[in-house]
Amino acid sequence: MKTKPVLAAITMLAVVGALAACTAGDGGDGDGGGGGDASNCTNEIKNPDAPVITLWAWYPNSETVVDNFNEANDDVQVCWTNVGAGGDAYDKFQTAISAGSGAPDVMMVEADRIATFQAQDALVDLSDLGYEDVKDNFSDGAWKDVSVGDGIYGAPIDGGPMGMIYRTDVFEEYGVTPPTTWEELEATAQQVKDAGGPVFASFAANQPATTTAYFYGNGAEPFTYDPANEGEIGINLNSPEIKEVLDYWDGLVDKELVGTEDQFTPEYISAVIAGDYATYLSAAWAPGYLQGAGVGEGADAGVWAAAPMPQWDPSDPIAINWGGSAFSVSSQTSNPELAAKVAFGVYADPASLDEGWKQQIIFPLNVNVLDSPEFQDYEVPFFDGQQANKEVYVPAANAYEGMTYTPLGQYYYSALTKQLAAIIDGSATGSEAADALQADVVGYAEEQGFTVTQ
Q: Which of 397, 391, 359 lies closest to 376 in space, CA to CA?
């Protein structure tokens, strides 16, 4: 159990980000809160006589997924509301947590947010609420991402096993092949640059989650955290492994082998379409994102392919992941058992999962999909028919061992973003940035009442 000073500090930190959403969530009859009220559902309730579980989710096909669940279940129905994606939903959920009412029974949560909400006693441990029945449907890494200590606080849905997306036209023009190690990546990037080609990859300050994945790819363990340890947290952000990663990218920036503009901006997408980047080191969901932004159409159609991520040690490869969501049960629910059934059952039926991956909405983590010949042999249109699932993303998903998330996650991302910007503008080396990051996050953790260990 977390000590009261630490829990109070975490609660106050989370409240700060939620003040702008103070009108959200009004108990059981506004946003479909934890009382199970069905007066404000976006979807149609198929069986009005069944108890209702409220759900907040922002998947593009949420209504279809909820309809599939409601058609298949007579004993419970889902009332779905989209209160906004990502931060908007979290702000509303945080307001409901602080008010003690207004939360849904089930909440879509990205894996890196779960520990923050768990620390406020806002989520239900699902270990004894159906987890044993479905645990074999997901890898150990998928479960670790939704765990805090020994507790299970989410039902995994999708993830982002990482690979290298690259332009075959650029690679052919400059006579290079996908690098298999980070050393090869630097040499290949230099070869392309020397021949007058584009920058090889992107190192963006606004992508701290990607950089964190790189840390894990070098065997780093940035954090250790178990709420059973009475407010202790392990922070190791200037380890040799992390310094090696940041010094490596610092070198690529200095040699102008990578671009440094922020990702997910119109300017960045325009540069990708124009062929200003030879690769995009990203997750399995990236093709859907890129296509939605207009990549892969017209002149750059049919030029994209996927390859495994480069490794530091090819004899001991490490799979990494960027992103992923789960369904968590709110502690405000009046029926944890039925809420858990919904969390484990929504987006778990074959029809919903098939639509999700075929429409490139999600990359499912359910092993029944990952192991299916249809999924593995799928010729991905964005990759000009390449069987990228079989060749790149399924092996990465199966090998991924998970990350340790903490209640400090959002502050850590902000602090890391600051240090990535310092590397990019030349005011700090990679090693200096790691030392500054360690000092910053340790100081912050101690201010919040944590006892920091290394």
A: 391
